[in-house]
């Protein structure tokens, strides 16, 4: 009995802290007290889902529509809430920084990596009075991590289809991050990149593509309620349609046959660089 009593004294009691959100009221409150329908995707859930993109972390939440027609290569993916159409009616934020384009309301989701995320908060319903006109359908806020101790992450991978052209060929992925907390100062750095030779498009060309992203965050904690945080993100993507690979050839001249004309199959590159400060 003495042994059991001594063992019982050594048992530590852990109290689970309530999940808090900031998006619903702009202040930290428990999820149960939020004056709206709120969903929180925690870091543990994100790691369990293993999403390839940040929007894939939301694809099992009711009332959330995630559209991504070309997988990783889709530069026009969007997230909408409760069936309210168009991205300009759902506000997307990252660490309090608005991602919606100020001219047309769209969001370029390429170059963001789910390994950077601490959690995602989804608040459904009209919140324009709190967050502005883009929040007619609701708000989705991606909150990135700020380490409490030294953290180093290195990930890499390669994949391709068995039958060339049936999926994205030669997909390569790399992700690196480093973070630490020294006294009251914390910082986090990360870099990620995707590359692929693409797949054969309807125009009989290969759609090569790559994207990458850099995240730099620094924070100084003056006290429990006062912090100064600086964030910089740079996202890039580039695609390139190569020379067409026609299926039909003239039996007499052995020259490729284009329909309606060769100009409809001209190759060409495109891309974008996005810098975000906050």
From TrEMBL:
Name of the protein in its database record: TonB-dependent receptor
Keywords: Cell outer membrane, Membrane, Receptor, Signal, Transmembrane, Transmembrane beta strand, Transport
Membrane topology note: Multi-pass membrane protein
TonB-dependent receptor plug domain mapped to chain residues: 31-139
Annotated GO MF terms: siderophore uptake transmembrane transporter activity
Domain of life from the UniProt record: Bacteria
Gene Ontology CC: one annotated term: cell outer membrane
